[in-house]
Amino acid sequence: QATRACHGLFPKRVLMEVIFQLASRSNISAIFAVSDEGHVFRALRYRLSKGRHFHASYDEFWEGLNGKKLSPFCWQLPLQMERKALEEIASKKRAEYRRRFALLDDIAASVQARIDPAVVSGKIQTKI
């Protein structure tokens, strides 16, 4: 239901959009992510107990976000996701993509409206 409510975007993809927006507003120059091999459940102490319960592939998700694998344990993610041009999208899917893009624009506006400019600039002021 969450995917349907997000017009076909997986919730983890929507969450990544929030992270991209926060990174952009905070002048972060790189986003790094752990690979499947680097996940804590791959550690020797977890292999027997929790190693079998690894349900999702981080590597596939990071690759789908156009991430770049830096090592067997680490990915570097883009700072923003490129959107397809509406002309490249099949006409029967364009309405859904317009709704997706509107949702992503709303998320960006919401993040921007909620971040205190003083915190982002590093000039935190205390109110007395």
Describe this structure in words.
This protein has helices at 2-5, 11-25, 44-47, 58-64, 94-114, 117-121; strands at residues 31-34, 68-71, 74-77. The model has no long low-confidence stretch (mean pLDDT 82). With 128 residues, it is mainly alpha-helical. Helix content is 44%, strand content 9%. It is globular, with a radius of gyration of 18 Å. Strands 1-3-2 form a 3-stranded antiparallel beta sheet, with helices on one face. Helix 2 (11-25) crosses helix 5. It is built from 6 helices and 3 strands, in the order ααβααββαα.
What keywords describe this structure?
128 residues, mainly alpha, three-stranded antiparallel β-sheet, 6 helices, 9% strand
* Major sheet description: 3 strands, antiparallel
Average pLDDT, rounded to a whole number, is: 82
Biggest sheet, spatial arrangement of strands: 1-3-2
Order of helical and strand elements: HHEHHEEHH
Protein name: DUF535 family protein
InterPro entries: DUF535
Organism: Enterobacter cloacae
Pfam families: DUF535
